[in-house]
Amino acid sequence: MDSIRRISKVERRVSLLEGPSRIFQGSTTPAVIQYRSRLASISEIDAEQVKIANYADTVKQLDAYYGQVKRQILNHQSSTTGLFPQLSQEREVACVRDSIYCAVAIWSLYQAYKRIDDDRGKAYELGQSAVKCMRGILFCWMRQAEEKLEKYKMNQCPEYALHSKFHLETGLPLAPDALGNYGHLQLDVVSLYLLFLVQMIMSGLQIIYTMDEVSFMQNLVYYVERAYRTPDFGMWERGSKYNDGTPEIHASSIGMAKSALEAINGCNLFGDKGASWSVVYVDIDAHSRNRSIFETLLPRESSSKNTDSSLLPTISFPCFATHDELLYNRTKDKIVRKLQGTYGFKRFLRDGYGTAVEDITREYYEQGETKEFENIECEWPLFFLYMILDGIFKGNDEQIKKYRHLLHPRLKVDRYGNAVVPKYFYVPTLCIDAERRDPGSQKRIASAEGDADNLYLHGQALYIMCELLVDGLLHINELDPIRRYLPSYNRPRKTGRYSAFQ
Question: How confident is the model at residue 45 (pLDDT cuts 50, 70, 90)?
Answer without folding.
Answer: low
